[in-house]
Amino acid sequence: MASPLEQALAVMVSTFHMYSGKEGDKYKLSKQELKDLLMKELPTFSGQTNEANLQQLMRHLDSNSDSEVDFQEYVTFLACMAMICNDFFQDYPDKMPRMK
Ligand SMILES: [Ca+2]
Ligand SMILES: [Ca+2]
To answer: How many angstroms does the Cα of residue 60 sit away from the middle of ligand 2?
Structure first.
């Protein structure tokens, strides 16, 4: 049985491939694939943003400017999200999810 952190890593990888394989290059997220991933897998985050912010986010994530988000660009984004979560939980330690 994998530990929660191992499971989290597996989810990060499998979530990418679940969306990247829908159209075009199956190892990269197109703008539509990225949008679907954000809306369905990060609803708390994407629910607070609008179309213009999403477009801006996509431009920022696409660091090599090929109009697609590859795995490295995706994990860089998740690392940023993890840092935002870390800042949040330092300010509100009582909101930290409890592991069994
Ligand atoms: Ca794709
Ligand atoms: Ca790219």
So the answer is: 10
CATH topology of domain 4-95: Recoverin; domain 1 (1.10.238)
Every domain of the chain and the residues it spans: 4-95
> For the chain, percent helix, then strand, then coil, each to nearest 5?
65, 5, 30
Whether the per-residue pLDDT at 25 is higher than 70: the answer is: yes
pTM, two decimals, is 0.86
Rounded distance from Cα 8 to ligand 1 centre (Å): 22
Q: Name the closest ligand to CA 77.
A: 2
Identity of the residue numbered 99: M
